[in-house]
Design brief:
Structural class: mainly alpha
Shape: elongated
Helix content: over 70%
Distance between the termini: 84 Å
Number of helices: 4
Length: 92
């Protein structure tokens, strides 16, 4: 036995689903513009330079080679002032 309210509810649900499908297919047809970024020559040069700097080592091998014997012998003793000065220089 079908009650009139049930038929109307089913018909209403079918119509809502059909209109949603139409909206979704229409939305797919509209092409949205893509974001694009263009960097200046200076920006590109800076980026290239930064990439090269990241590839460089922080270790100064000449200085390390000169200090290596003292470090290995345990006779390398930098002053507290030198250590503090270097630490402060790294912060600022």
């Amino acid at each position: 036995m079908i009650i009139n309210n049930n038929v109307q509810a089913v018909t209403g649900a079918y119509q809502a689903a059909s209109s949603n499908a139409a909206r979704k297919s229409y939305a797919r047809e509209i092409e949205t513009p893509k974001d694009e970024a263009i960097f200046s020559d200076v920006g590109q040069s800076f980026s290239n330079l930064l990439g090269e700097l990241k590839g460089l080592s922080d270790v100064r091998t000449e200085k390390l080679d000169a200090l290596r014997p003292d470090i290995e012998n345990g006779t390398y003793n930098p002053s507290e002032d030198d250590i503090a000065a270097k630490m402060l220089a790294m912060l600022g």
